[in-house]
Amino acid sequence: MSSFAAVGRTMRLNGRLTAAVLLLQALTLARCLQLTEITVPDVVDVRETVTLSCSYDMGTHKLNSVKWYKDEREFFRYSPLMPKSLMLFDVEGVTVLQNSTGQICNQFMCSIQLHRLNIRSSGSYRCEISGDAPEFKLAHGVGNMTVAVYPQFDPIINGLQHNGVQHNYALGDFVVANCSSDMSSPPARLYWYINDRNVPSDYLQPQHESTVENDGFQLRQRTLEIRFYIDEKRLGKLKGKLVLKCLARIDAIPQATRESTQIIYIPTTDELRNQKLINWRGSDACSLQHATLARLSVLFTVTLGGFRWFV
């Protein structure tokens, strides 16, 4: 046999061995249990009811248990092979919503719900599954959750109204308004827009912040004041109105964004000219009426003085 034939046979043999090893590894993996997915929300509002879930493939094993941990402390266990399949354990910051439709644990997945959240509910959550005897194989997945306090209400714009009535504005007027965010943790960042455009920094005053502590959360409210002249050179063609919008946004939590809008109506040059004309005509008519009444009054006085009576 030539050396080339021997080399070819060796290469074919090695190829078959490699294929066999890969097939064996695939069969072994198919027989092993594995956690395929874990769902833990990154950030939640303290008022929410949150759902934690994990999915798994048991392979050739039977499910012995599913355990949920918070910061390495077990607070939930599902054991389908035990007489009491569900067990709860006290862990600070964790309250499992019992008898809810969102709680589903079986051979393929385990989903639970938490409510009554607080600042101690933030942390690391781990789902661990185990197979039955004699091997009791384990698999797990981890997710981190932070509990925040979202703003409940839209920001409040003050200064453009007095006793609920909108101020009247015209070209050249000076506008002062402030926007206050709702209490939140983390605090919201405030942004002003005029006609959907970011306002220049020189329109803004230094931001003010106040803090209140509630159940361990540092709740913050921010206020940002805007000052500017109604000037078409800087603002562009106004078309009879200015739309002022205040946006309260927590950069890390876009779903907590809130906004408020108010409109300033500004009469155009033609409208002002027409209004002046109306006022002038009204003023002229009033002057004519006053002059007529004055002349009648003099005539009546003279007539009385001469004892001329008319019935």
How does this model look, in words?
The protein is of the alpha+beta class and 311 residues long. Helix content is 23%, strand content 41%. The strands form five sheets. It has a six-stranded mixed beta sheet, with no helix packed on it. It has a four-stranded antiparallel beta sheet with strand order 1-3-8-7, with no helix packed on it. The protein has a four-stranded antiparallel beta sheet with strand order 11-14-18-17, with no helix packed on it. β7 and β8 form a beta hairpin. It is elongated, with a radius of gyration of 39 Å. 19% of the residues are buried. The C terminus is likely disordered. Keywords: Signal. InterPro entries: Ig-like_dom, Ig-like_dom_sf, Ig-like_fold. This is Ig-like domain-containing protein.
- The chain-level mean pLDDT equals 82
**Which class best fits the helix and strand makeup?**
alpha+beta
- Name the helix and strand elements from N-terminus to C-terminus, one letter apiece: HEEEEEEEEEEEEEEEEEEHEEH
Over the alpha carbons, how many angstroms does the gyration radius reach?
Answer: 39 Å
Q: Strand content of the residues, in percent?
A: 35-45%
Tell how many strands the DSSP assignment holds: 20
**Mind describing the biggest β-sheet?**
6 strands, mixed
Please count the helical segments: 3
The gross shape turns out to be elongated
Helix fraction by DSSP (H/I, runs of at least 4):
10-25%
Assembly type: single chain
**Strand neighbour order, sheet with most strands:** 2-10-9-4-5-6
**Low-confidence runs of at least 5 consecutive residues:** 19-30, 296-311
Amino- and carboxy-terminal Cα gap: 155 Å
